[in-house]
Amino acid sequence: MIATTRDWAPLESPISFASSGRRHFAVMGCTVDIHATLEDTGSTSLIEIGIPPNFPGAPPHLHEHTTESFYVLEGNIDVLHDGKWRETRRGDFFLVPPGMVHGYRNSTDKPARFLVMGRGHARFYFELVDWLWREPIWPPTDHDALIAFGRRHDTIYVGNLDDREAIHAFGRLDDISDL
Questions:
Q1: Which of 38, 52, 83, 122 has its CA 20 to 30 A from that of 19?
Q2: What is the CATH number of domain 22-172?
Q3: Which pLDDT tens digit goes with each residue over 4-56?
């Protein structure tokens, strides 16, 4: 006979009451729903992002230590993954290991929604939403502040952050060698 132990709570009893309460934000035409934080789960954050049509999204960046994953719930988004831009659609999943340059944007005329999962990402989004309420411009005008913000959250932006047009148009690049 093999003995097993359980170190998790049964589904009918949540680990944290906070994890069952949604935290919803709307800013710059986007929605951010933080469903679970690192503090709630002990291992990852679960965030639902809604982006409007033709949204420039996240500039190309990498995480030194964090694995990030995405699952498309609705619409289509373009994802920079493994050096190539790929169009994704509902039901697509992709995993981004540490060190891989990635980004996303919505180049369609319809909104899109997706889940983002990563260790500590809720803190990134809480702080980002607060910043965007104070300065509703994307990308932010203070690029040094963006770089410092990223470093606090294991995010290193790549490419020229001083070229606002390039950041808005980055989804048109065929691969990251043009950055």
A1: 52
A2: 2.60.120.10
A3: 443 444 334 334 444 445 588 888 788 999 998 888 888 889 999 999 999 98
